[in-house]
């Protein structure tokens, strides 16, 4: 039997589902044995994977989140492109089998799939249905509606109207996509490494100025930059609306919350656009690390094949809320009546399928994990009155462009 290892960052209920998939794969055949290992947060898993690669002790499979995509795809020789791995091991591969929103996010500039887009998500708006009913309001479609109608009514009813997780993901990257605004030069970074970030824009500064005002007026609260900081007060029923990952859906369902919840699309600013566009995928992708034997690569290919089968993809989608990554799995979920039972489970994939625009395919920027650190630091400073929105975005722009030019040098 060939043994392989899979380092991932799926904690809690997500980790249980990963373990179940691995157990089922091991039981489904006699040739291969996979061992999943939880390595902490996405950032920790990536750091551990890079360190292990340098020491020649890399796992066969490493899960890398969206923000690390450019770095790992740009690290030539560190991974075996998933498309090559599958084809070399006799697995049928057609990039068209994948839903359009995930097809090219982990592909190289020629469109070759480098990472297997295993757990793809989108940021969505969860809401406490009881709270909205008490306040006599609907889930807001626009940020204007939120601040003029929804938030005052929710405050009146005794709730903190809004919190949100992953500020860079939701209130920056997907803000640009939802409003079809350019986020970086070079076609959002896809056309070359000599890219400059366009984060210092009037639209996003307007948004963050409002976020700060909402905080001051009690319309919004920010509980910290860690993974669960802003989700917990929603689960406790204090916060009425929470922006988070579609991949949190399964965890929320499993918690049996003391209120009914649902979800819908991220609001947009009518002042910026009356034709809001789609968001792009978040979550993470699986990379086959290089330096492994043919037997082990065959085992990795077999696991990827298993993982992308409609049955396993549907099970993963159903249990977690990550979107089905293939059309076949999406069809299976529909035919099984999953969305009739849980309409909110379809919001992530529906939002990914809203009208596209020139700037809605995501971004490709190296050292982006560090750029997110800069953003998180500056957003914390805005919210605690240590800096102005204007200064914060100027700082983010300068430091991000410095990181991008350093990354560009690694690509020459
Ligand atoms: O919570 P996830 O797994 O959907 O990931 C959210 C972001 O994409 C992380 O960068």
UniProtKB/TrEMBL annotation:
Principal location listed in the UniProt entry: periplasm
Entry annotated with the keyword Signal: yes
Keyword hit for Signal: yes
Entry-linked Pfam families: SBP_bac_8
SUPFAM superfamilies, per the entry: Periplasmic binding protein-like II
Domain of life: Bacteria
Subcellular location: Periplasm
UniProt entry keywords in alphabetical sequence: Signal, Transport
Function recorded in the entry: Part of the ABC transporter complex UgpBAEC involved in sn-glycerol-3-phosphate (G3P) import. Binds G3P.
Annotated PANTHER family: ARABINOSE-BINDING PROTEIN-RELATED, SN-GLYCEROL-3-PHOSPHATE-BINDING PERIPLASMIC PROTEIN UGPB
Family to which the UniProt record says this protein belongs: Belongs to the bacterial solute-binding protein 1 family.
Record-given protein name: sn-glycerol-3-phosphate-binding periplasmic protein UgpB
